[in-house]
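Render this sequence as a predicted structure.
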Amino acid sequence: MKNTSTGVVFMILTIFLFSIMNATAKGFATYYPIIEVVWVRYLSQTVFTTLIFLPNLNNIVKTRKIKLHLFRSLLLFCATISMFSGFKYLTLVSTITIFQIGPLVIVVFSVIFLKETVGYRRWISVIVGFSGALLILKPGTDMFSVFGFFPILAAIFYAGYAVSTRRLGTEEDPQTNFFYTSLVGTLISTIILIPFFEPIAIKDLFLFSILGVFGGLGHFCFILALRKSEASFLAPFTYIDLIFATILGILFFSEFPDVYVIFGAIVIVSAGIYTWHRENINLKTTKKFT
């Protein structure tokens, strides 16, 4: 019970830190190239990580699962750049709400990659959840464009990252997971950034550094949360992000959620919670007969 409670605390802290990072990224994405915002986010995180872990860095970089680390880090990079692209073209709360289809994507992944059997009820919840995302994107309007699907891509990539993190979480030091995530993201974004780089204003340097620090702390707390509690138990707590996103969107961008976002959020969250509920029932049934 103590470990479970600790996992919940780390999960809520993760969501809060990510919310601050997302709001900061949205502000910068309006007048800096998206890849540059991503680059600074990873670079500042890598510098922060290296300074903190320097005394034990030789041991931290040692791993027997370098391929899985690289794959996991690539998924997170793709999720980050997709998410930040969504911030540029959509409101903060719309982007975050659509991103909440992530738990539903995991259901699809379990069938495709893990060959698990999923009942028709959960398939219906997946379809309903995606319908909620489409409701927010408003088919037939300007919002329903290629840019509107960036949060969906982010959810797909992040679902893969979450599954990979869970697989690594109990086998290796979270510091190792954290370090490779930062380093790989920095290397990839640096290569892509070269033709798009724009000088950063001195007044923005501090906030840019905050972007990486909050993002880094958020991912580290996420790793710790998964070490303390099962991913399935923590899943519903991710919806707290909608509250944080709404508050920050109103305070900093004067973005008030419209009726489509509100109803879309209700549909997506309801589908996600139902999926989580069905998975818990199946898990308890399996344990009962094993």
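Summary. The chain has a mean pLDDT of 83. The chain has one domain: 2-288.
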